[in-house]
Amino acid sequence: MTTEIATLDFRAFAFIITLAAVVNGLGIVRWLSGFAEYLRQKESLDVKHYAVFNLAAAFQFLLHILLWWTLWSIRESASINFLTYLYLLTGPVLLYLGTTLLSPSLEDKSVDLRVHFFAVRRAYATILCLLWLWAIFASPIFRGFFAPTWPLLALFLASALGLRLSDRPAVVISATLLNWLVFIAFVGLYAINLGAIGADRPG
């Protein structure tokens, strides 16, 4: 027996998702404009690179794309009220705040990315913790059940907690590498196709 899944009308979905897409897009624009500015001023800038920062920055950029890609599953919400709409917007807002914190300023013409990363580490990791909690509970709120991705989201949360609680280089490096491993697993298992997460429902 096949159970029919109620979904939002596409026009309603497009209307609801627009503001979330705009906020999320601002984060993408911030990374791209910052990178373009770095390339434009590269010869006059004194930038001390830090591999962990570079990996974290690339990870943060890809999170914006992944968020947009996975928001398609919101269509499975039979209805969305103002409170759940505010919850929906919380994720893109948190992601944008994390990007804003992590993005270095090039105004001083001299940037030590290691110093910058550790200066914003706790605040950035706190935002990541909130983001992963938001992601874990998004499916129960909008679709009525935990998504099969929740164990991987919990690993993301554990990584963010480790980054927030410790500034030891070994912990910071481990958290950064774990983020990438979980990201690859998440995309490979659940997000390689549009709507793949939304198709997974408990039996």
Structural description of this entry:
The protein is an all-alpha fold. It has one domain. It has helices at residues 10-40, 51-70, 82-102, 113-143, 150-165, 169-191, 196-199; strands at 46-48, 110-112. Strands 1-2 form a two-stranded parallel ribbon. The longest helix has 31 residues, at 10-40. The model is unreliable at 1-5 (pLDDT under 50).
Low-confidence stretches: 1-5
- The secondary structure category is mainly alpha
Taken as a percent bin, the fraction of beta residues is under 5%
Question: On the 0-100 scale, what is the average pLDDT?
Answer: 89
Terminal Cα span: 12 Å
* Overall body shape: globular
Multimer state: single chain
The ordered string of helix (H) and strand (E) elements is HEHHEHHHH
Major sheet, described briefly? 2 strands, parallel
Identify the strand order in the major beta sheet. 1-2
Q: Count the E strands.
A: 2
Which value, in Å, is the CA radius of gyration?
A: 18 Å
Give me the number of helical elements: 7
